[in-house]
Write a structure and sequence with these properties.
Radius of gyration: 22 Å
Largest sheet: 7 strands, mixed
Distance between the termini: 29 Å
Oligomer: single chain
Order of helices and strands: EHEEEEEEEEEEEEEEEEEEEEEE
Number of helices: 1
Number of strands: 23
Structural class: mainly beta
Length: about 325
């Protein structure tokens, strides 16, 4: 089963979807300040472990949390030139301050900047990692064309993992036009519907990802058939030569027929489609890897771009099931 190794933390127009600690978030669309700067607040106690060590972790009680003073993480020596696709780690700090301003000395804080080369507002999904600490996925946006957005993120010590030193790396960067960003919560889009993809499942070369739609508007929303999909590569360019086929031609996981039926969603109701593919390599030629999928719930609907990370091998097809009301909906 595929799972990202950390929950998402959102800034900008998207909602917070995890309780992972934040150490503040810069929202200015400007160049980042010099790395290593700290504020006037008291510093967290320096508790950066020695590389290779596995110090014991403590789980503070609510009483201990309340008595621990607020503070600012202390800068530590670290390589800060890690850069990938416009995302740069600009500073690393010993300790972390959570969303309540409580100092967590067993944490690590990374400062980063995102610079957009695009010609429209973009929303970025960034994965950061450090040896011996929990990796973090952060959703940042909107970032305006040619501008830089700064932020910080806190990492917690990983149980049982040895510490490889305070070096934070940018594992991956994905970006979608902010106007097409998926939303599972927050204000209802102008279209009256939310569209998003779940985390997906994978086993024995078969991948399945759910496409979810919620009617958050005030009027019934009719659907009939399958969502309209466009496969895009890492540069957001269309991928040609992939056939979209009924979902049960790739996999029929629950045994139910993949039949097109009209569906009408009343306000608050949800519908589900699934995409399924295999990453088998059977023929000579480069396998297809396409991170992005532009989704239109129905003909003429506003597009939403999701990131299912399609590794299609050389199969040349993607299965798409028809819309149906989610289980539990009347």
């Amino acid at each position: 089963m595929r799972r990202p190794f950390a929950d998402r933390i959102t800034v900008g127009t998207l909602a917070v979807t995890t309780a992972l600690a934040l150490a503040g978030c810069g929202a200015g669309q400007t160049d980042p300040p010099a790395a290593g700067g700290v504020g006037a607040a008291p510093s967290c106690p320096s508790a950066t472990p020695t590389p290779g060590s596995t110090p014991p972790l403590t789980r503070p009680t609510a009483t201990a949390d309340a008595s621990r003073p607020p503070g600012t993480p202390s800068p530590v020596p670290s390589a800060t030139d890690t850069e990938r696709d416009g995302v740069r780690v600009t500073g690393v700090y010993s300790g972390a301050v959570d969303e309540h301003g409580v100092c967590r000395p067993n944490g690590l804080t990374a400062a980063f900047s995102v610079t957009s080369p695009d010609t429209q507002d973009m929303t970025y999904t960034i994965v950061l990692d450090a040896g011996g600490y929990t990796g973090v996925t952060r959703i940042v946006g909107p970032v305006r064309p040619g501008k830089t957005l700064r932020g910080t993120v806190a990492m917690r010590r990983s149980l049982g993992d040895s510490v490889g030193g305070p070096h934070v790396s940018v594992v991956s960067v994905r970006s979608v036009p902010t106007a097409e960003a998926p939303s599972e919560s927050g204000p209802c889009p102008a279209s009256g519907v939310r569209v998003w993809a779940d985390r997906g499942d994978a086993a024995m070369g078969l991948r399945v990802t759910g496409l979810h739609l919620e009617n958050c508007g005030r009027s019934p929303y009719p659907l009939e058939g399958r969502p309209e999909l466009q496969i895009l590569d890492a540069g957001h360019k269309p991928v040609e030569g992939i056939r979209l086929v009924p979902g049960d031609e790739v996999a029929n996981l629950d045994g139910s027929p993949d039949v097109v039926r009209p569906v009408t969603l009343n306000p608050g109701e949800r519908a589900l489609s699934t995409i399924a593919w295999r990453n088998t390599v059977l023929t000579v030629g480069a396998p297809v890897n396409a991170p992005y999928l532009r989704v239109r719930a129905r003909a003429g609907a506003a597009p939403v771009m999701v990131t299912p990370e399609l590794d299609l091998g050389t199969t040349g097809r993607l299965g798409v099931r028809a819309w149906q009301k989610e289980q539990g909906e009347p």
